[in-house]
Model the fold of this input.
Amino acid sequence: MPRWKLFYRVMMRPLFREPVRLGLMVLAVGLGVAVVLAIELAGNAAAGSFHSSMESLAGDNDLEVVAWGGVPEALMGTLATLPYPLRISPRMEDFAVDTRTRETVPLIGLDLIAEGSRYASETDASNVNSKYKATLEKSVRDLENPESVWISASLGKRTGERISLLINDRVLDCVVRGVFPSTSGNEHAILMDIAGAQRALNRFGRVDRILIKLPANSTVEDWQKKLSSVLPPGVEVRLEGTGTEENRKMLAAFRWNLRLLSYIALVVGAFLIYSTISVSVVRRRSEIGIVRALGAERRDVLAAFLGEAACLGLAGALMGLPLGRIMAGGAVKLMAATVESLYVSSRPGAIALTPYSLALALLIGVGMAVVSALSPAREAMQVSPVDAMAQGRREYVARAHKGRDLAIAAVLAGLAALAAQMPAFRGKPFFGYLAAVLLIAAAAYAMPALVNFISRTAAGVLGKLFGVEAMLASRSLAASLRRTSVLVGALATAVAMMVSVGIMVGSFRQTVVSWMNHQLPADLYLRPAGNAASDRHPTISMELVETIAKLPGVAAVDRLRAYEISYDGMPATLASADLRVLRAYRESDFFSGRPTGEVLAELRGKNNIIVSEPFTYKHKVNTGDTITLSLGEARASFQIVDIYYDYASERGYILMDRDVLLKYLPDETPTNLAVFLVPDAKVAEVRKAIQEVAAGHRILIFSDRDLRTEAVRIFDRTFAITYALEAVAVVVGVMGIAGALIALVIDRRRELGLLRFLGASSGQIRKMILVEAGLLGLLANLAGFVLGYFLSLILVFVINKQSFGWTIRFHWPVAVLLGALTVVYAATLVSGLYPAWVAVRLNPLEVIHEE
Amino acid sequence: MAILSLQNVSKEYTSDRQSVRALDGVTLDVAGGEFVALVGRSGCGKSTLLHLAGVMDFPTSGTVGIEGQPTSDLSDAQQTLLRREKIGFVFQSFQLLHTLTVQENVELPLQLAGKAGARELAIERLQWVELDGLGARYPLQLSGGQMQRVAIARALAHSPRILLADEPTGNLDTTTGGMILELLLRLTREQKTATIVATHSLEATSVCDTLVKLRDGRVEEVTRR
Done:
């Protein structure tokens, strides 16, 4: 008989006799695989599309010339007159909001005449992009119209139709002169002639990037040096697409943490596979003895149990694939919103199930199952035929090792404490993750002692409180200590992650809320309409600012200006504030603890800056250090005079005096306004007055309360995905409890049947199983809560700090934790309903007769 | 007066669409203090008769009455109540719960029935079976004979009117088996229980008050001594 047939008969067929349990196990593994896959797919889709329209439309260039605040147009001439065969393409790059759909769309200003000629000259060499070429050639004829735009097909407009665009704080009514195919299927983009774009953006004399195509067979590094030597010091020549790479790099920590969080459901699944195979080994000890006596080798036994696990893993992976694809659809929306709020403008790309993702699902499903089954399979391999017939020995072994396991747990916990003290490695909190893993492992080793202690201690108390059924239930759990410990370990891990992430998020939320109370001293805040994003800084017209400043009731207007820059290979935000206003009104929170007025006085008129906490962490700088920034054409050095707490964005902030920034980047238009009112002014009246004077502008006005509410909304949206991931892990854990209870019922059917003989009613049997479920839930909640508390310390003070650089003040989110633990406990009780029903339906005559 | 009365009782099982008659027209009365030995080959219906007498199953036809009350009319809850009050079981493989101590095993039927004084009654029952002092041990720490005595103490914990034993000596050596039978007989006399023992033991047939021979589900012979 072929070996696979034998394997099927001996190992697989018994699994199908318990279809509900088998289904729960496969579903549990499938969910674990699905979550990991969903986060991977959604992460790729959400993070893979930064400015992708801009990059796709950049063509095949090699280098880009950039300067923060814009590259002077005059440099175009410098480059064009060089005696080199270079192709030079200037670009304006910003965002516009389609007022109909309210979507933010990349706005690209191109030298359309040059681009049209280029495509015309390349048409013989390649027929690719022929549609795009035809569009551009035709578009040249419409260039005289300043409101002409060419849009991607995904925007759903046709040539000749009108599109209303919000650019900065003004609405521009444009005519669609042409439609070009969308890149990647759904990428939006709006093209304008570069002169039109400068006009629309109110940025004259500067372009955002100059793209350069080098001659064939040239060394990029040599050209970088050659071109840098003819450009001013503040202007950088770098590889084309560096910005996109920097964004990806910036997002790495976010994706890493999310990816690791997604693995929690898988870890819980691993516990369940371990439990399932352990149960399988215990149940089949006598069979193992028989087949060993009949000539099977140890490795045959090992292979059989690993094969059983692999089949469960494979089935889970196959189920996880479509499930993961569906979950990715929801995850990508949440992730894209977070990316946009905290990092960079992006539009989620298409979710692509690639051969890599298929391989990933299979690898994690089967790999996790086989690795989890290794330990019990090795135990099965070592069973001697004589030992296999000995009743009760297996549990004795579990009991006998309690002391040893507890010692191992103590060592692991000690190592976790040590790992938590280690610094980040290559900018990633590897030792923080290690500490978390060690702590989970310590908990797993401590679990038998905990379960044994609590269930035995509880037996008497529960018996008195809830009757003999409760006493029997707790005794039964203590008796099957190994199985109970693994189950409690699985659910406790899920609960612990829920508790730790709950505490971390709750602490973070509380920190942000109290920080905002200090940071929002003004009465009203204004910004251009459109979706907010960390890297978009649309401006407010100066004439509006001046009008608002003169309104009755307005005491002062703080003009804030922000620029998207790159520092030391990472995106950052450079901001300036009107320090006269700040000094009079703002309360701030500095590392030095010095009064705000004293710190800000050091910035006025000098090349001094303050930086946000994440900036210092990312770039390893501190108070007193000097950093050099490229601003316009110049490179200037600035001294860090203090560091301030900031939770608005993960990208680092550099703040300087407005007058100082204007020396380098003489663009007066602000990106935000903070309006301070005179003491007796009514906020509603001033707000109305601002709305009236801003009638021709699209601006949003917030009170400090609105801003806080909005910030909390964004915060909650940001962390929604973490709650979703925790929920899946808990669902996997609860399904494991249900599956294991079914197994317990089946394994204890003799005992349950006997109880009926001894006078137990069906209600008492039901109660017993439900009490077992309740006890499992209680143990898991208790262990999970304690473990979760320690994990939260690692998350708050190690992983978060090393990943993002934020100082979070510890806070107990009591209501959230109580609510979550209650839901988990209720779910565990509910999970006992089906096994209880199975137990009640057992025929006592049959089960006693089997003996 | 008979405590247990079976009148023309038949029991059919359907398995794989085939009907199997396990008992066929059995009539038997057992009085308090009477020790009945039920003998016959494997599959003759001994266990089925015990299950019907123990209200674990219903007859297909005929009547099973306990102290004059027919069992067929009882609901599941009433059956449970009847078992709790009037019936004790002893099994071949002892069927003790290994997670409970000896004393806790004996207390179990009383606790399931929610009766007070379980502890004291259990201690007394263990004295009846001469195991006083071993209450704190776990079943796996006892010999086979001791385990069966614990099972008997448990069966008698709630002072049942009917004691049913299915091959109580089947897992024991001859000497220990003999001691168990003597114990069952003594307790039957002392407690005035109607005792039915399904057995292959020759000794049981020699000490019983009534010997019932079953063959293919029918009563072949009843010998009263």
